[in-house]
Design a protein that fits this description.
Elements (H helix, E strand, L loop, with lengths): L1 H24 L9 H20 L2
Helix pairs in contact: 1-2
Bound molecules: calcium ion.
Protein name: EF-hand domain-containing protein
Pfam families: EF-hand_1
GO molecular function: calcium ion binding
């Protein structure tokens, strides 16, 4: 139904953003996110989730 479709689209959008954030984060281009990069990622995700759940 529509609700299920909406959830899928939302998930795809979030994954696309996460993928972009991951690539942006890999500042030294070694193909992986080290601990410092990981902490930055978590901070970004937290802010993103706040925006997603608070702003309606
Ligand atoms: Ca890296």
């Amino acid at each position: 139904n529509f609700s299920h479709l909406y959830k899928q689209i939302t998930t795809v959008c979030i994954l696309a953003k996460v993928d972009k954030i991951f690539k942006d984060l890999d500042a030294n281009s070694d193909g992986s996110v080290d601990f410092q990069e990981y902490v930055t990622l978590v901070a970004c995700l937290t802010m993103m989730c706040n925006d997603f759940f608070i702003k309606k």
